[in-house]
Amino acid sequence: MDFKHSDKALHWQERVTRFLDDKVLPRAADYWAEVHADHTIQPRTMEALKAEARDAGLWNMFLPGEHGTGLSNLEYAPLAEAMGRAGLWTPEVFNCNAPDTGNMEVLHMYGNPAQQERWMKPLMAGEIRSAFLMTEPAVASSDATNIQTSIVREGDEYVINGRKWWSTNMGHPNVAISIVMGKTDTEAATHAQQSQVLVPTDTPGFRVERMLTVFGYDERPIGHAEVVLDNVRVPVENLIAGEGRGFEIAQGRLGPGRIHHCMRVIGAAEKALELMCERLLNRTAFRKTLSEHSVWEQRVGEARTNIEMCRLMVLKAAWMMDNGGAKNAKSEIAQIKVAAPKMALQIIDDAIQAFGGAGVSADTPLAEMYATVRTLRLADGPDEVHNRTIARLEYAKHGGRPVR
Amino acid sequence: MDFKHSDKALHWQERVTRFLDDKVLPRAADYWAEVHADHTIQPRTMEALKAEARDAGLWNMFLPGEHGTGLSNLEYAPLAEAMGRAGLWTPEVFNCNAPDTGNMEVLHMYGNPAQQERWMKPLMAGEIRSAFLMTEPAVASSDATNIQTSIVREGDEYVINGRKWWSTNMGHPNVAISIVMGKTDTEAATHAQQSQVLVPTDTPGFRVERMLTVFGYDERPIGHAEVVLDNVRVPVENLIAGEGRGFEIAQGRLGPGRIHHCMRVIGAAEKALELMCERLLNRTAFRKTLSEHSVWEQRVGEARTNIEMCRLMVLKAAWMMDNGGAKNAKSEIAQIKVAAPKMALQIIDDAIQAFGGAGVSADTPLAEMYATVRTLRLADGPDEVHNRTIARLEYAKHGGRPVR
Amino acid sequence: MDFKHSDKALHWQERVTRFLDDKVLPRAADYWAEVHADHTIQPRTMEALKAEARDAGLWNMFLPGEHGTGLSNLEYAPLAEAMGRAGLWTPEVFNCNAPDTGNMEVLHMYGNPAQQERWMKPLMAGEIRSAFLMTEPAVASSDATNIQTSIVREGDEYVINGRKWWSTNMGHPNVAISIVMGKTDTEAATHAQQSQVLVPTDTPGFRVERMLTVFGYDERPIGHAEVVLDNVRVPVENLIAGEGRGFEIAQGRLGPGRIHHCMRVIGAAEKALELMCERLLNRTAFRKTLSEHSVWEQRVGEARTNIEMCRLMVLKAAWMMDNGGAKNAKSEIAQIKVAAPKMALQIIDDAIQAFGGAGVSADTPLAEMYATVRTLRLADGPDEVHNRTIARLEYAKHGGRPVR
Amino acid sequence: MDFKHSDKALHWQERVTRFLDDKVLPRAADYWAEVHADHTIQPRTMEALKAEARDAGLWNMFLPGEHGTGLSNLEYAPLAEAMGRAGLWTPEVFNCNAPDTGNMEVLHMYGNPAQQERWMKPLMAGEIRSAFLMTEPAVASSDATNIQTSIVREGDEYVINGRKWWSTNMGHPNVAISIVMGKTDTEAATHAQQSQVLVPTDTPGFRVERMLTVFGYDERPIGHAEVVLDNVRVPVENLIAGEGRGFEIAQGRLGPGRIHHCMRVIGAAEKALELMCERLLNRTAFRKTLSEHSVWEQRVGEARTNIEMCRLMVLKAAWMMDNGGAKNAKSEIAQIKVAAPKMALQIIDDAIQAFGGAGVSADTPLAEMYATVRTLRLADGPDEVHNRTIARLEYAKHGGRPVR
User: Fold this and answer.
1) Distant-in-sequence, close-in-space partners of A57: CB < 8 Å, separation ≥ 6
2) Domain Acyl-CoA oxidase/dehydrogenase middle spans what residues (chains A, B, C, D) (predicted)?
3) DSSP string spanning D305-336?
């Protein structure tokens, strides 16, 4: 047991952190100015930063194996944290943003050579963006068996009908492809009913119904959409892996994805704590700085403790995935999925309280951070479902019925 | 001791509730459509509803004494709750929205006849809107002695310099007057340094620097502004009550204002609980409705309990103010100021969790409700300052030094 | 609506408080010295105080109607609070301690004249003590349908077999009678299977198996026992009200009983807050008193707020019972049952923290108070069951299936 | 970074766990029977188990370096956890119980050869027991500068006067020696005023005033005492390390000691979770097992998560101490000192709730576990002081004044 990162990992951390400090953060204001001027076009600042990151070799670091930089989940985790600390808009700079990461992983693991050539290649080059269409407004999608979108084979085509939402990246000017989850066989065994199909976003019948807001934030140019699939037809070659393997593919993508999310969240929590400490040291009330009021000592003390504990947990989950796969780390992944956002929300909320009016407005990143992290208690399944998973694995140790 | 509202109070509750159900809520969509089309103009729907409410005698109910409807704080409280439940945009329909209410009260209690004629009359008629400029970005304004805006007499004029923010109503197309708090004498005893002056919003040097957002919500046509006062000159007749009485006036306005806020918050919590129950009864996961999952029983049980307890506390505080004044109810007012928003935030957050993606988006009122209520843990002093007040009153019972 | 107690109620409060201050508290040390010397005999101090209380007319105040003092639940509640504040051993002084109170109520409402003469009379005189045997170790007794004790009629006798525990008062030297709940007809409708029977504690086959401790506290001379009923035979005349009415009787007793418990708990919380404030004002760390450390301001502020809110809730529940009966106040009674102990435990725990080592030891009453109040989250049904009740009543407002 | 224990560590874990399972737990009932029969004598079962453990080489594992088994803190931590899981009485079996461990460490690091021969040797052999007399009832001892006990040199002797409490082991029949902290020079710099002196417990003037209880539990044969030192005289040779070094020695002992405590607490939490799961799977209410009620899924999920996070944190703190010393791990040690007991108390409390009456009684170990762990939020400094330490280290990163 050793709590020190490897030299390789430290080296990567140093490179990414330096790039963020030297190249990315100085251009944050430019990026946001472009977004506020027109959030329907891709900011030129982003494309410039992407080019620099790619030239610097800081590109696709999330992807294990030869296609990326060959980093393990454990080695990648601190890089995701650094991005989360720099701002939740920065992962795109490194082509490391969700859901493109998950989609590239799926194509990497389950795509055939033609699919990889056609879609994975431009995604890995950062030339196009992609969406993952799973969640549906009409049903509790955390119970994946509820999904209603139908994928029916007619001749050489699949005909897709359904309604999806929270389809991230659908506001992106460069979005070109989506992976759609739906049922090819409603008569099959519960977990063999679903399939995943590649659907170009310009296919007839594929329609963005509206963009969604998060606590008042329109998150474009990324954005989350409600999408209607109305007799959308794609060639059967667009099927990924095989009919009935949709659930299996979905499970596979969630492990690393959750770890990435959690590490970014930990970075966000670090940022909030940093801002909070600076505020407390520089604000005076009742003749002493806020930092000297002991109520804040308790909050800062707990904030530091909770960040440290969550970070260790995420790193351990990453290490377990590297040494045995996601199935091996099922409970641990569920644990961080619940614990990290909860931890971060408390710290961000405390930081808001320390800042007063500046905390709820756009003068600090805190309110938007809160909104984004709040959605992570819901995205990829609500807390309740993950705690259920953990509990049932725990019960199984004591004779409770096994969990699939 | 009697927990039943008087017949008079029940009658008013019935009238206001019926008006909200029959007249206001059916036009909510119209109101919001106008706001979304152009949030810089006053929606015609609002003016139409105001006219109806006034005709129905449901007008200025917040104001005790002969100028309003003669309701006590205890009698008014459930009306504020009903408005909070209907939506935080509805109090304006009844001319019962902050900060106009507080400003009218100040003019009612401290204004001279000329000031009442010039400003209170059109405010009470709903013809103009007003702002209260107290909080400053540069200092912890919860410690009122920190306020830096200067009000210097030069001949027959006061010259005002300062920077204020969170000046609610400054986005309103009809805003015409503001009450500005500042220091007329920095050498006086701590609580006699400040004064309040009437400043028309079109006075030269009075400048809206920018509008603020709350989480991602721009709350116009009401809106909160940052305002710069740059050598603003007003005649000395605009002074309210007398030099050095600013702190006293500010204290006076906070009692009823906090009770109004808290009752609206309780109404919002009721609405959130209502929505949550409906969702739980109508959503299925893992083969039963969410309402049948016992974790939700615990949350709903606690929600109901906490609403009931907070409501009783607000009603008691209102009753104490009616029977002995705000000074008499100092601890109780501080108690509800902290307890009500905290209670409501938990319930709204649980409701968001029950709704999933719909909860954080604009498909439910929950996310905006959360943002608004979150600001109430800061507005009129943060929780920490109110708990300090309560604690020091408590300590005083055991020999701690007296609280002013 | 009026938050002022009636003159009558205030008069009683004044009498009871004065008696506690003048007569009871000065003898607390004597009482405990006797208990520590031998907890199997009734302390003479208690009997002396009982005689004085009875002479002073402060006796059986819990009982509504002509048998007691004619106080309503609303009027009695503050008296129970005063006893709780004075110490959880003091209700016996006034013959107002559980479970004797509940048993007297049951005999008062459901007993026939012979039963009243034989058992209620000496109970009301404080000459004997009684137990209520409901909870069973083998089943979740909060779901009353689980109860397994059998009551089988054989000729003119009932034969009772079963195992009960947490039978309070079974350590009392004066205990003479118990009310036993069990099933007379396992074939009847769910809520008509149970009956309640009077069983003298010296009946052959009635055996105290052992005394139970609560967090290390042996609570004798009151005490809680595990009792075995082994072919216990009583005459059929000992049946209360009628076969199959056990559930109905049990429901009836719980309303007032819970209010009494909750008011005593509120008194205990007041005592803990009082002790905490004194400690904070008199203990110095890091060159200032603990009261000047702002973390304690937050805790004291919240403590005061939560006590006030819970007290109002209990008073309202009492008022509702007085004006419509326990069934009418089903949700409110469940609410306080959960809220009051939770509130008190937090305050007691904070007070323990303020006292340090003195808090967990016998140098303050806090640790024992904590232990006793902790049991109230379980006794008469765990929190979870009461929250379930509240939630289902809430769901019913929105079309959920009705609650019986 | 590697989350796998070394083979050496795993081997020791296996040995200790097997010894606990095979030798210790089967004799738990014997041990407690002896204690309940007479808690003033050392149970023969304990001495027998100690002899077996010593023969098995499972002895003094806590002590780093050649005197013990040569285990690092990181390697020892899981052994402490295993003991905590087996029961808080089991560390003595392995001569690994506080405060003997800390006292042996002090003698190991600061004692001179004569002191080591006279006291450390029999302590390491398990022949005698020892106490550490630091905390005083009259002052907030968490601020060590408050300590009032005086140690005055007169000729070749030190004369000690003071009053100490929570002196653990003072109920032990074998206690022979104590280390007393007091002031040798009240004029010296704040942290150079104190010294530590060896005081045999049979020295004239050394008097056990009384034994203390913890939530009703008399914890003898170990026990915590209040001790009066009334003109106690010891030879100057009994001084440890040097005058004025008391604070330094105290700091040194706290690092490992806190880690041991925390690991035992984690073991206790594991035990509570284990018991809780078994209960939930085997108890039925409302026609399904408690484990199927989703409220328990949430609690079990959070319990598992919080245990995992705390354990990682303790292991990291241990690793940091092994690689840089306690000063290096100042924040981390403070973090676990607060986090571990808080985590465990929640889980134990939930387990109590799952067990109902059995949870608060002696039928499960839960209530006593709760009491013991509750004291750890106070012992070695209350949570508030540790959070203060963490916060000030955090502030220092942002320009706050340095922490000594």
Assistant:
1) A69
2) 131-232
3) HHHHHHHHHHHHHHHHHHTT-TGGGHHHHHHH
- Eight-state DSSP code of residue C92: G
From CA B150, how far away is CA B152, in angstroms rounded?
A: 6
Tens of pLDDT, residue by residue over C243-264, are: 999 999 998 777 788 889 999 9
With CB atoms and an 8 Å threshold, state whether B390 touches C305.
yes
Query: With an 8 Å Cβ cutoff, is B293 touching chain D?
Result: yes
| Angle, vertex CA D332, rays to CA D326 and CA D338, nearest 5 | 115
Contact A166, A379 (CB under 8 A): yes
Residues C77 and C45 in one domain: yes
**D228 and D295 together in one domain:** no
Domain shared by B142 and B210, yes or no: yes
State whether B281 and B236 are in the same domain: no
Residues, chain D: 404
In chain D, which stretches have pLDDT less than 70?
403-404
Which of A78, A98, A121 is the endpoint of a domain?
A121
Q: Can you give the pLDDT of all 404 residues of chain B as single tens digits? A: 999 999 999 999 999 999 999 999 999 999 999 999 999 999 999 999 999 999 999 999 999 877 789 999 999 999 999 999 999 999 999 999 999 999 999 999 999 999 999 999 999 999 999 999 999 999 988 777 889 999 999 999 999 999 999 999 999 999 999 999 999 999 999 889 999 999 999 999 999 999 999 999 999 999 999 999 999 999 999 999 999 999 999 987 777 888 899 999 999 999 999 999 999 999 999 889 999 999 999 999 999 999 999 999 999 999 999 999 888 899 999 999 999 999 999 999 999 999 999 999 999 999 999 999 999 999 989 999 999 999 999 999 999 987 65
Residue D170 DSSP SS3: coil
Q: Is C209 on the interface with D (CB under 8 A)?
A: no
CA distance D118 to D123: 9
A263 pLDDT higher than 60: yes
- Domain termination residue (choose one: C38, C65, C97): C97
Query: Residue B171: inside a domain, yes or no?
Result: yes
Amino acid identity of B227? V
User: What percent of chain A clears pLDDT 70, i.e. is strictly above it?
Assistant: 100
The nearest alpha carbon in chain A to D290 belongs to A395
What's the average pLDDT block by block, 10 residues per block, for chain C (404 residues)? Answer: 97 98 98 96 98 97 86 96 97 97 95 97 98 94 86 98 97 97 95 96 98 95 97 98 94 83 97 98 93 96 98 97 91 97 98 97 97 96 96 96 68
Judged by CB atoms closer than 8 Å, whether chains meet at A281 and D4 is answered as: no
C334 to B388: CB separation less than 8 angstroms, yes or no: no
Q: What is the CATH number of the domain that holds C46?
A: 1.10.540.10
Helix, strand or coil, per DSSP, at residue C202:
coil
Q: Is residue A255 a part of any domain in this protein?
A: yes
Domain-embedded: residue C105: no
CA-based torsion, B44, B49, B54, B56: positive or negative? positive
Tally the domains of chain D.
Answer: 3
Contact D80, D91 (CB under 8 A): yes
Q: Which residues of chain C from 320 to 349 reach within 8 Å of chain B, CB to CB?
A: 320, 323, 331-332, 334-335, 338-339
Calculate the alpha carbon distances from A338 to A124, B128, D301 in Å: 30, 49, 9
Smallest Cβ–Cβ distance between A294 and the set D281, D300, D384 belongs to D384
Q: Taking CB atoms and an 8 Å cutoff, what residues of chain A touch B361?
A: 212-214
In chain A, which residues have their Cβ closer than 8 Å to the Cβ of C280? none
CA distance D272 to A403: 22
CA distances from B87 to B79, B279, B345, C58, D127 (A): 13, 19, 15, 51, 75
Note whether residue B225 is domain-resident. Answer: yes
Task: Say whether both B346 and B256 belong to one domain.
Answer: yes
Residue D362 DSSP code: T
**Domain that includes residue C214, residue range:** 113-242
